[in-house]
């Protein structure tokens, strides 16, 4: 078990290094001189030099890479060129919107998908199963940002149950949760559809396994065999998909924030792009990629908990 | 007492069983024998009421006073595992991989509310001890156990509540011969000890003759003959029984034609696998083949026998020049065998594998399949089609079969195609890697006849690899016995079988179930 | 092959409909989609404008037709990138299982998986500015590891089969075996995966152009139509509903087709039928 953990931990670190190299390469090496790029065409040589100085773009490439990485390790993400404040502060602010949103959506998605997938699998071939499969097929086809717009149209414009956008801050937790509810639903529905289908097929797969027949021969009813033997085995492929979905949720959240005018990381990154603030773009993408890699790591650990074959010795 | 009367079964309208009647007394071992698809397993599943969807069943089946076919599903759940236990063929997949073995045995008790959690664990421990796993902890997981140990766990779970009937569906087919003997002994002891009845389903007449008090022979969903084992196997009144019996101990007519010239010379071969990963380093390499030496002579049939994992497949791949070796030398017709060996050298040694289903690219027609080894020739022969037709005819197929796809053939016919493919380059050596192991006995006998015939016609040399001692004895002149990567005994086949020198050979021979105890009255006429 | 599944027929019909509309838009649309005629703004559906017009006076039906073209082109090229790069990588990894090459390919895959296509698009846009090419690259790059995995997984199970061993005893090399024996037998898997990636590509293209990282004006695209409709949603909801419906129907069609193809092509299911 310890060896497995150590193995995954090493692989986590290697992935992070590789990812940071890719991002550094795209943002700081490909454009040539990032300072000149950020200031645009009309910049004077003096201005560019000043910005270069300000951003610490002096040294050689390895020096700059090391400065960037070691800065991030100590919580220093550089200073935003447009906002003139530390990027770390900006991110921390926005994280308090984006992270709860992704978590909310993930919770909703699993809470919907598990029972739905279980019902479809246990009533395989019935009208219920066909209905669920049809519904999830539709759910997968709906773009989440369009679904978000429809939700706004129905629940904010027509019914006026929710506000159409904006975020009141966490001073009033109830209001904050309410403001995140429509975005979370919009994010969760397509993911829940995928997850429910995976859950169903994983369950059907395990139900065809020999050990289910053994369990039935021991006197377990169909239902008992599902609960005691099929579920935990089906969880293994389902976990993989949950891990993969996290990156989709994160990407989706960036877009959904635009529909609901939520001040999250997504808004920050798009402002960064339009204002050519490379420092912000660089750090936020690194953070997003870090989150994806971290979740992959957590899924690997969950695997080991679910599957004794992985934690031998 | 189990009584089945006039049991008929169809699944989605397709008849599976017809008018099956049998009776199993208390404490009796009842052997149900037949070839694959004969309906043996379905009979068992009908007793358990675990039939697939679309099953329609008529007739009666009683376990003492209980009418099994009229029980509700809830009542059947109460009976299964409690009054009737069952174990299956494939122990590697029969246990839940994410649950400890102790829990899986205890579950039988818990599900029937027969014990508290603590008691169930204590009884499970006791049952595991009884099936010979006293040295295995309750918290071990299935993947940590061997196939034989897993089958023991299945048995422990099945007998945890002392059922009146235990159904064993091909319980040892997936196991090595020594493990098979141990499991069969265990089942025999349990029957005597517990006074339960055992319904033993198998394709292997020898297993039945060793084990069963009564035997029923099944063919195409019907019982064609049944009675006390000695009587059924001794008298063989039904032609199908005779055919099965003859095929099981079939001895093809073979001419002795082994020469002295060595075609294949294997000398002190060493094949290593990298050791298990230990963090960044690796453990000591595994010696899968460890100093093996032998020669295969012209026109000779040489057997290589051993249990799974002994290294015989690894050795085969090295001889075929598919994998590199780490020590020693393999010489074919005097030239070294390596993965980089010349194509015309390769053309001299061809192979037939076990699996008649995985042996062919499903998208190719027979002509292309059989002609594939022509790749070994500098230029494909101009009479390619004629050569393929000739090869097909020599294995008993028609030239017209050239345009068919592999799925249009039965298992035995596919094995004939595989032999035709191996012969197309006119090799001098044929390697037969478990080539008849997946076939039913009657088909197996036909293929063995074909191989014997081809050998004398084409003066081929065979390297015949098998775990099956009967087959090795029937088709080889000389035999090598392999254990843990080494050849432990080598000699004339008859000598090795009648006077084994090495203790491992003796163990193997003692473990193999024997059919000849009843004397042979059948003829080969039914072939 | 007795009867084709309903899902396949329905899905193929839907997809073919959109494809036909997209192809037709090359030669004919009811109105020009690039000229803004303010006099025609926000016309209701019917008459000269079957589905009405937007706030710039452009005909919605024409916009949807050309939008289909954009979506299909982007998704198709992205799938093409994924197949041409991913499949050979996957085949090579499987053929050299456990080797350094296999390890490098799989680690590279994992690395790309850590970059959702939106993040790739953000990175490209930040440096090169937004364009349809961005969207293609971003989605295409993300498709590479998907196809590499499917190809490797399918190929690995085939490499253990006896017919591959037979081919090796017939003196065939790994490249030749991959081409003759492996690729044709994983084609089914790849076709089904291609349909799925195609539909995901349509969704991703819509999302990217919605946030301005995809096709740029004046090229119409479904995603940007939705972005432009967002401010009009209170007064003219149909402007937002129609492009969304187009996306849903196109994606639904492709997914149904993928499901149907899987049923028809899956060798396990086919064996049961024969």
From TrEMBL, chain A:
**ABC transmembrane type-1 domain spans which residues?**
95-299
Tell me where on the tree of life, at the top rank, the source sits. Answer: Bacteria
List locations, semicolon-separated. Answer: Cell membrane
What InterPro entries does the entry give?
BPD_transp_1_N (IPR045621), MetI-like (IPR000515), MetI-like_sf (IPR035906)
- The portions of this protein that span the membrane are 9-30, 101-121, 142-163, 175-196, 234-256, 284-306
What is the recorded membrane topology of this protein?
Multi-pass membrane protein
The UniProt GO MF terms for this protein read: dipeptide transmembrane transporter activity
UniProt-listed Pfam families: BPD_transp_1, BPD_transp_1_N
GO cellular component annotations of the record: plasma membrane
Predominant subcellular localization, coarse grouping: membrane
| Keyword Transport among record annotations | yes
* Keywords, comma-separated and alphabetical: Cell membrane, Membrane, Transmembrane, Transmembrane helix, Transport
Gene3D superfamilies tied to this protein: MetI-like
Family as reported in the entry's similarity comment: Belongs to the binding-protein-dependent transport system permease family.
What is the official name of this protein in its record? ABC transporter permease
């Amino acid at each position: 078990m310890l060896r497995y953990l150590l193995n995954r931990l090493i692989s986590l670190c290697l992935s992070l290094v590789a990812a940071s190299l890719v991002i550094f390469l795209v943002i700081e090496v490909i454009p040539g001189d990032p300072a000149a790029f950020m200031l645009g065409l009309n910049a004077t040589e003096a201005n560019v030099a000043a910005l270069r100085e300000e951003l610490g773009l002096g040294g050689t490439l390895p020096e700059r890479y090391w400065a960037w990485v070691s800065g991030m390790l100590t919580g220093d993400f550089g200073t935003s060129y447009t906002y003139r404040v530390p990027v770390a502060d900006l991110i921390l602010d926005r994280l308090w919107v984006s992270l709860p949103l992704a978590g909310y959506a993930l919770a909703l998605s699993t809470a919907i998908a598990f029972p739905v997938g279980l019902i479809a699998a246990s009533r395989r071939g019935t009208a219920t199963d066909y209905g669920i499969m049809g519904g999830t097929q539709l759910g997968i086809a709906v773009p989440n940002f369009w679904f978000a717009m429809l939700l706004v149209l129905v629940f904010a414009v027509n019914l006026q149950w929710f506000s159409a956008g904006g975020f009141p801050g966490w001073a009033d937790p109830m209001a904050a949760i309410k403001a995140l509810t429509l975005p979370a639903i919009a994010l969760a529905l397509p993911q829940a559809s995928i997850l429910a289908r995976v859950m169903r097929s994983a369950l059907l797969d395990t139900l065809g396994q020999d050990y289910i027949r053994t369990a039935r021969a021991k006197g377990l009813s169909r239902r008992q065999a599902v609960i005691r033997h099929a579920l935990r085995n089906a969880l293994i492929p389902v976990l993989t998909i949950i891990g993969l979905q996290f990156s989709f949720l994160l990407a989706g959240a960036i877009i959904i924030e635009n529909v609901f005018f939520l001040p999250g990381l997504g808004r920050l990154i798009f402002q960064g792009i339009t204002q050519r603030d490379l420092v912000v773009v660089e750090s936020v993408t690194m953070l997003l990629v870090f989150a994806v890699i971290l979740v992959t790591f957590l899924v690997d650990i969950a695997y080991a908990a679910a599957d004794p074959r992985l934690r031998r010795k | 007492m189990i009584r089945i009367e006039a049991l008929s079964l169809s699944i989605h309208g397709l008849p599976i069983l017809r008018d099956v009647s049998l009776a199993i007394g208390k404490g009796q071992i009842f052997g149900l024998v037949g070839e694959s698809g004969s309906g043996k397993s379905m009979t068992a599943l009908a007793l358990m009421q675990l039939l697939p969807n679309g099953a329609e069943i008529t007739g009666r089946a009683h376990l003492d006073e209980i009418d099994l076919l009229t029980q509700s599903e809830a009542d059947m759940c109460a009976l299964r595992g409690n009054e009737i236990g069952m174990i299956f063929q494939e122990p590697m997949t029969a246990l839940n991989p994410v649950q400890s073995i102790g829990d899986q045995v205890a579950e039988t008790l818990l599900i029937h509310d027969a014990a508290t959690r603590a008691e169930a664990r204590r009884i499970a421990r006791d049952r595991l001890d009884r099936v010979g796993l006293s040295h295995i902890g309750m918290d071990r997981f299935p993947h940590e156990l061997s196939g034989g140990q897993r089958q023991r766990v299945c048995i422990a779970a099945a007998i945890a509540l002392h059922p009146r009937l235990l159904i064993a569906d091909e319980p040892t087919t997936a196991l090595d011969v020594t493990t098979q003997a141990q499991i069969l002994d265990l089942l025999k002891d349990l029957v005597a000890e517990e006074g339960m009845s055992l319904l033993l389903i198998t394709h292997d007449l020898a297993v039945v003759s060793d084990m069963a008090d009564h035997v029923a022979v099944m063919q195409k969903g019907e019982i064609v003959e049944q009675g006390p084992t000695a009587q059924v196997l001794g008298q063989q009144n039904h032609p199908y029984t005779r055919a099965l019996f003859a095929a099981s101990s079939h001895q093809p007519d073979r001419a002795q034609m082994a020469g002295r010239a060595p075609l294949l010379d294997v000398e002190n071969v060493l094949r290593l696998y990298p050791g298990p990963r230990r963090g960044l380093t690796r453990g000591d390499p595994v010696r899968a083949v460890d100093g093996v030496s032998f020669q295969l002579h012209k026109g000779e049939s040489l057997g290589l026998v051993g249990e799974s994992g002994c290294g015989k497949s690894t050795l085969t791949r090295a001889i075929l020049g598919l994998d590199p070796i780490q020590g020693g030398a393999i010489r074919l017709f005097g030239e070294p065998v390596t993965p980089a060996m010349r194509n015309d050298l390769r053309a001299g040694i061809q192979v037939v594998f076990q699996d008649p289903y995985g042996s062919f690219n499903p998208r190719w027609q027979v002509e292309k399949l059989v002609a594939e080894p022509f790749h070994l020739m500098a230029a494909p022969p101009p009479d390619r089609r004629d050569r393929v037709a000739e090869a097909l005819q020599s294995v008993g197929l028609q030239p017209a079969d050239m345009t068919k796809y592999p799925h249009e053939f039965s298992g035995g016919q596919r094995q004939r195609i595989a032999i035709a493919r191996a012969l197309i380059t006119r090799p001098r050596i044929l390697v037969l890697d478990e080539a008849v192991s997946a076939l039913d006995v009657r088909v197996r006998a036909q293929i063995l006849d074909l191989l014997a015939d081809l050998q004398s016609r084409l003066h081929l040399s065979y390297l015949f690899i098998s775990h099956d001692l009967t087959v090795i004895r029937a088709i080889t002149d000389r035999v090598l016995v392999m254990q843990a990567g080494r050849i432990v005994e080598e000699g004339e086949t008859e000598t090795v079988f009648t006077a084994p020198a090495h203790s491992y050979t003796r163990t193997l021979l003692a473990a193999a179930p024997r059919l000849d105890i009843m004397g042979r009255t059948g003829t080969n006429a039914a072939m | 092959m007795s009867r084709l599944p309903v899902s396949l027929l329905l899905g193929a019909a839907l997809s073919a409909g959109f494809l036909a509309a997209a192809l037709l838009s090359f030669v004919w649309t009811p109105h020009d989609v690039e000229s803004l005629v303010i006099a025609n703004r926000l016309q209701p559906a019917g008459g000269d404008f079957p589905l009405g017009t937007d706030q710039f006076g452009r005909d919605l039906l024409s916009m949807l037709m050309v939008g289909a073209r954009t979506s299909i082109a982007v998704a198709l090229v992205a799938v093409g990138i994924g197949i041409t790069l991913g499949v050979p990588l996957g085949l090579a990894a499987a053929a050299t299982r456990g080797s350094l090459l296999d390890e490098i390919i799989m680690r590279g895959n994992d690395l790309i998986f850590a970059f959702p296509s939106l993040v790739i698009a953000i990175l490209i846009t930040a440096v090169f500015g937004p364009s349809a090419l961005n969207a293609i690259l971003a989605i295409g790059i993300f498709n590479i590891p998907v196809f590499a995995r499917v190809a490797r997984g399918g190929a690995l199970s085939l490499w253990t089969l006896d017919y591959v061993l037979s081919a090796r005893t017939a003196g065939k090399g790994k490249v030749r075996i991959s081409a003759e024996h492996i690729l044709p037998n994983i084609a089914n898997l790849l076709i089904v995966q291609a349909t799925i990636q195609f539909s995901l590509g349509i969704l991703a293209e819509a999302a990217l152009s919605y946030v301005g990282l995809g096709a740029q004006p004046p090229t119409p695209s479904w995603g940007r139509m939705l972005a432009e409709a967002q401010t009009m949603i209170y007064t003219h909801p149909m402007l937002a509903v129609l492009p969304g419906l187009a996306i849903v129907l196109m994606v639904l069609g492709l997914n149904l087709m993928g499901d149907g193809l899987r049923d028809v092509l899956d060798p396990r299911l086919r064996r049961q039928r024969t």
